[in-house]
Specification:
Layout lengths: L7 E2 L1 H13 L4 E6 L5 E8 L4 H7 L6 E11 L3 E11 L5 H14 L2
Parallel strand pairs: 1-3
Antiparallel strand pairs: 2-3, 2-4, 4-5
């Protein structure tokens, strides 16, 4: 899958996301740009972790994308979950940041 930014998203990335979303197999998934900055690839999928564990993973250098499956309780209505999408950029050039943002908008249709 390719977005208008020219950054490709591997089929593997989509498969892991579907496993998180539909099968609740993972608590969070980390993605990153490959060394050529032309493709987003799977970095890690974690089955059990706390939110603090997840946040500590995002502080690594370079652009990272992530999805996290939040569990919470809504008073009077029971257990719920929401999936949040993150894009994190540390110490990178603006051009790469722009490409990552464009992917986020166009790649998550």
């Amino acid at each position: 899958m390719s977005s208008s930014s020219g950054v490709d998203l591997s089929e593997e990335c989509l498969e892991f996301f579907q496993d998180l979303k539909l099968k609740k197999k993972y608590k969070y998934i980390l993605y990153k740009l490959d060394d050529s900055y032309k493709s987003i690839v799977l970095e890690k999928a974690v089955e059990e972790a706390t939110y603090d564990d997840f946040v500590s993973e995002l502080t690594s250098s370079g652009p990272r994308y992530a999805v996290y499956d939040f569990d919470y309780e809504k008073p009077g209505e029971g257990q719920r979950s929401k999936i949040a999408f993150y894009s994190c950029f540390f110490n990178i050039k603006l051009k790469i940041k722009t490409h990552g943002f464009d992917f986020r908008i166009h790649g998550k249709r």
